[in-house]
Structure formats: structure tokens, C-alpha cells
Design brief:
171 residues, mainly beta, 8-stranded parallel beta sheet
Length: 171
């Protein structure tokens, strides 16, 4: 039985606690990792990590808890970084929920949710960002994927669009 939410009886590869893999792991299907991997992980499905990874991770989605990851994470769907997890690397995903600590650039096409105990030392590009009270956030935030941008309201010289039209004689 899995310790992670959302797992069913589908075939799952399990790397038990105490196991150390020195090399890349490529898997078709889900991966539950409780040990240590010194290499990249590549999966076409979910990767659940409750251990240490020193390498890049590419998966459909990722869920981490009580983990240490040193490497970049790329997800087709979402990334969930739970408590007692430290990520040292960039994350590229559709959505991101953070309750742990991240240091790296975040490129999230949808929503970023930063929990009350999260520590995020990252520049963030996203569609929307929710920061809960108590969270620590250091970095620049850009809602570059949002439908409404500052360009809708301000000209390049930071003057409101209405003022720009008055100066140029346009109405």
C-alpha cells in the first residue's frame, strides 16, 4: 500500500529506503522513491519522492515529501513540494504547490500556491500566484502567462495609457 495520495493498484516501481542507485532511472509508469538516486529520473507518469535525488527529474507530475532534490524538475502537469522538502534547482510545470523550500527559477504556466510554511528563494514566472500568510518569498514575480498584463494599462515609459494618448493628441 502506498504512502502517497492518489495512488491506485496500477503497477508501481518502488525504490525502498536504504537503496542507493548511482545512475539514471528511466521508467514507463509510476515511481515511488524512498532511497537515494545519484542520477536523472525520467518517467512518463507520476514520480513520488520521499528520499534524496542528485539529478534532474522529468515526469508527468511529481510529488515530494521529506525529500532533498538537487537538480532541475520538468513536469508536463503539476509539481507538489510538501513539508520537509528542499529543492535546489529550477522547476518547469503547469502548476506548483509549495509547502517546503525551493531555491531556483520557477516557470509555471498556471497557478503557483505558496503555503504558510514555504520558503521560496526564486524568481517566479506564472499565470497566477497565491502566497499564504507566513510564507517566505524572495525573488521577482512575473505574471507573464496571465491574460491581463501591465502592457494593457501602461505604455513603455510607465505612463498610464490615457495620459500617453493626451500627450500625443489622440483620443
Amino acid at each position: 500500500m502506498s504512502n502517497f495520495d492518489g495512488m491506485n493498484n496500477a503497477q508501481v516501481a518502488i525504490i525502498p529506503q536504504g537503496t542507493v542507485i548511482n545512475g539514471n532511472v528511466e521508467i514507463t509508469g509510476k515511481l515511488e522513491m524512498y532511497g537515494t538516486i545519484n542520477g536523472d529520473i525520467n518517467s512518463n507518469d507520476r514520480v513520488n519522492i520521499c528520499g534524496d535525488v542528485k539529478g534532474n527529474i522529468k515526469a508527468r507530475d511529481i510529488y515530494t515529501k521529506d525529500s532533498f532534490v538537487e537538480g532541475n524538475i520538468q513536469c508536463e502537469d503539476g509539481a507538489v513540494i510538501r513539508e520537509n522538502t528542499i529543492i535546489l534547482g529550477d522547476i518547469d510545470a503547469q502548476s506548483l504547490t509549495v509547502d517546503g523550500a525551493i531555491q531556483g527559477k520557477l516557470d509555471i504556466k498556471g497557478m503557483v500556491t505558496i503555503g504558510e510554511k514555504a520558503i521560496v528563494d526564486s524568481d517566479i514566472k506564472a499565470k497566477s500566484i497565491q502566497v499564504n500568510n507566513g510564507a517566505a518569498l524572495n525573488g521577482q514575480c512575473s505574471l507573464c502567462y496571465a491574460e491581463i498584463t501591465p502592457k494593457n494599462f501602461f505604455a513603455d515609459d510607465k505612463t498610464p495609457v490615457k495620459e500617453n494618448t493626451k500627450k500625443s493628441g489622440k483620443k
